[in-house]
Amino acid sequence: MTIRTLIVDDSASMQAVIRRKLDADPMIEVVGTASSADEARAQIKALDPDVVTLDIEMPGMNGLEFLERLMRLRPTPVVMLSTLTSHGAEVSLTALELGAFDCFDKAALPLAVDPTGAPGLADLIRAAAQSRPAATGRREIVSYRHAEPEAFRAKPRSMIAIGASTGGVETLIALLTDFPANCPPTVIVQHMPTSFTASFAARLDRLCPPRVEEARAGAPLVAGTVYLAPGGDRHLEIAGVGDKRHCRLVEGDKVSGHRPSVDRLFHSVARLARADAVGVILTGMGGDGAEGLKAMRDAGSVTIGQDKATCVVYGMPAVAHRIGAVSEQQPLGRIAARLIAECRA
């Protein structure tokens, strides 16, 4: 079965570039194009596409406004096209929060293969077709918090390690807003472009009770702080002795197709923190993090996988579950409470 795709972009030349890119994939059929929000609305009603590619910059109603209305009234998998620069990071993050499946860098469209190793546009279209967007643009998340933040006291040396990819922006916001302000030290690898991570860390810091910062080499792991791996050419690991742990940023080849890699982080946690740590693998394409989570479980860590029903893409958690890396699966709304329970003194 082909994936019926609608291209929405105000540039006719860009529409042609996108169409050529997608026509090369036998699984994808471009069923139409639109140059404005009004045209896109009419085309979606007439064609009922499986996936929409949407330009953020459009005349009249911009892509974000159209996305918000689309996800509220007719939830559809959407891949946003943007210039993934520091300037575009904030609007792209907003698009992901509003329910876009993912963002694709327009600069990579003319390339046969993205030199960064990021998924191609056709890859994202295929994955988006398997996703389940929810009405209102934000997937429903049920909170099961049982204790107020001030009631929490962590076990000495406890820590949390988290890996996420596609769908991780809104998932991490939902998860960390249920964390207490004095949470155990928490380290995260979220696959995203280099220009996004500083903006995303700042956004999480504004929205969530604990402090959230982009990880720095040598930064000590302290309670009440969440460390987000910077995008780019280094892996995030933890290092240290006993309860004196710190962040380490390490150059190296990609691991499981990614840099920073969830596997690389989890393996370092397994070596150093062992049963002191709790590992979590969240929504995402591919299998990064599965082997590292298995190492954590073998070292004595409790390991949690997000369940299929609440994942945007049940890829990374599925691989981890299949190889026996996950000690339990939980819906997103329960994960924060489970983490805090495991780390409670």
UniProtKB/TrEMBL annotation:
Its EC number is 3.1.1.61, 3.5.1.44. Keywords: Chemotaxis, Cytoplasm, Hydrolase, Phosphoprotein. The modification 4-aspartylphosphate is found at D55. It is found in: Cytoplasm. InterPro entries: CheB-like, CheB_C, CheY-like_superfamily, Sig_transdc_resp-reg_Me-estase, Sig_transdc_resp-reg_receiver. The keyword Cytoplasm applies. Phosphorylated by CheA. Phosphorylation of the N-terminal regulatory domain activates the methylesterase activity. It comes from the Bacteria. The active site is at S165, H191, D288. The keyword Hydrolase applies. It is an enzyme of class 3 (hydrolase). It holds the Pfam family CheB_methylest. It catalyses: L-glutaminyl-[protein] + H2O = L-glutamyl-[protein] + NH4(+); [protein]-L-glutamate 5-O-methyl ester + H2O = L-glutamyl-[protein] + methanol + H(+). Residues 4-121 form the Response regulatory domain. Residues 156-345 form the CheB-type methylesterase domain. Involved in chemotaxis. Part of a chemotaxis signal transduction system that modulates chemotaxis in response to various stimuli. Catalyzes the demethylation of specific methylglutamate residues introduced into the chemoreceptors (methyl-accepting chemotaxis proteins or MCP) by CheR. Also mediates the irreversible deamidation of specific glutamine residues to glutamic acid. Contains a C-terminal catalytic domain, and an N-terminal region which modulates catalytic activity. This is Protein-glutamate methylesterase/protein-glutamine glutaminase. It comes from Sphingomonas longa. The gene is cheB.
